[in-house]
């Protein structure tokens, strides 16, 4: 089995699949701090994907602090230590970015996307508030029942 395989049937873009695979390999210790990643050209050829896609992944990994690019030498894994909170933010950012890009590809403007996101966030908040209110009411009712 190859280290990097792209699932053409996946709903995830190729670059996200590759990025997620690198994060997994770094977190599970396959790549240790200081290890050099394959060159962009080498990985693009081996995985049969576009050079620019691999480059985008490496830039994203560097932005998120997983790797460090050293000019003329290559891309090296950084010591990530305890990164749980950053990992969650990174995953969320990637999901939001992909959602926005899908909306834009459907013909929406960025302003329309923002307004729809605000509407969805408000709807979800209202649902959460209604659920909390219902739980509070049931709790108070059960407490009154105990007092009677």
TrEMBL record:
Domain of life: Bacteria
Keyword DNA-binding: yes
Signal peptide: none
Stretches assigned to the HTH gntR-type domain: 12-80
A Pfam family per the record: GntR
Entry-linked InterPro entries: Tscrpt_reg_HTH_GntR (IPR000524), WH-like_DNA-bd_sf (IPR036388), WH_DNA-bd_sf (IPR036390)
Annotated SUPFAM superfamilies: Winged helix' DNA-binding domain
GO molecular function: DNA binding; DNA-binding transcription factor activity
The protein, known as: GntR family transcriptional regulator
């Amino acid at each position: 089995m190859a280290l990097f395989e792209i699932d053409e049937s996946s709903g995830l873009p190729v670059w996200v699949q590759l990025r997620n695979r690198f994060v997994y390999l770094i977190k599970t210790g396959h790549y240790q701090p200081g290890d050099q990643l394959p060159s962009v050209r080498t990985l693009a050829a081996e995985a049969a994907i576009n050079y620019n896609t691999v480059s985008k992944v490496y830039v994203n990994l560097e932005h998120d602090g997983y790797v460090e690019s050293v000019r003329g030498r290559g891309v090296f894994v950084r010591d990530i230590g305890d990164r749980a909170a950053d990992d969650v933010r990174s995953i969320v950012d990637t999901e939001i970015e992909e959602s926005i890009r899908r909306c834009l590809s459907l013909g929406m403007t960025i302003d329309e996307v923002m307004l729809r996101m605000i509407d969805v966030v408000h709807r979800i908040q209202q649902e959460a508030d209604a659920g909390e209110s219902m739980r509070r009411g049931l709790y108070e009712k059960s407490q009154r029942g105990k007092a009677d």
